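Example record

One chain of 58 residues, shown exactly as stored in the release files.
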Amino acid sequence: KTSTVAYFLPVFGIIWGAIFLDEVITSTIIIGCLVVLIGIYLSNSNKKGYVNSVNTKA
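Predicted structure tokens for this chain:
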């Protein structure tokens, strides 16, 4: 779970660039952020019936 924080870096970079460097946020950048956020959601959500680990007896 902690590795997913790295996926947020582009979003924070855009926000900080707009705040501190007066970067212009365009519609293309917003769409890119949405794609990143959707990817983060999909990578963190478990599909129904998916098993994270398999317990077997040897």
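Notes: The first helix runs from residue 9 to 20.
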